[in-house]
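Cross-check.
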Amino acid sequence: MVMTSVRRAIAALVVVLAASGCASPSGSARESDGVRAVTPELLTTVGPMTVIERDDRTQLCVGVLQPYPPACAGGIELSGWDWVVVAGDFEEYTDVRWGDFTLTGTLDAHTGVFAVDTVTPASAAPTAIEEEPLFPSRCPVPDGGWEVLDESTATGEALHAANSLIPTLEGYATAWIDRSQIPPAPPGADAIEQMRFDAVHAGLSIVNVGVRGDPSAAEVAVRRVWGGALCVFTVDYAAADIEALQQRIMHEHPVFSSAIDPMTGVIGLTVTFDADGELQLRMDREYGPGRVAVWPVLVPL
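Predicted model, tokenized:
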């Protein structure tokens, strides 16, 4: 079973060169999450999410810790949950049960409890097909396509060296790898085999680097260690500034988690529910439109 979290938060957290994400111990619905006193309307999860029963608590998990058996890393308490209804669609080990489901129900904002109305197993939901690379290159494809300039420094070791160097660049903002040029692994390859395959073909990676300031200086620095494809571009922020803003927002607003989108610099906040988009409007007023994106776990049906 694939353990899931909030779909957009996952997309923002999967970063290959640099990531800025923080989890909050907060795990209940609060009025400052954009939840008013009562939300009697029918709500649904944004997609299939993991439900775990552990230590006599059944929770809709916003994040999942991966020991075996798994545990919630922040979650919403559920009432009206019945494992009998989803027999055959969950796993069980010792006293822990878990599975991936789309839920509908109502939220009590005073207690933070979500009363379950309907449950759809993830296996019964349509699966979205990812047709584009998760993190495509920021730069247009050069004439003649992406090329390796120096094969001696287009290796896994060189990529690791670039990984270490890039965050030290003046005005460093973000970085990621576009792996769209790497051929698919052989059919049936497991996660470890996929990692080894990617390492062998590391020279086909397209390293993307964003800086606030002179991109040519950054390109010269990276080229000292990396001979594969490279895209260096300018943005209007630095990583240190956006991370400081992220910490400030998380200190002022109880949220489940926060992550910075490496491609845009947008700060994402995962919350229980945002009634009428109130928290999003507040973020837009305080920090400007497009700087902070509020990602509710529960949305109106």
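The longest helix spans residues 239-252. DSSP finds six helices and 17 strands in the chain. Passed to J.P. for a second look.
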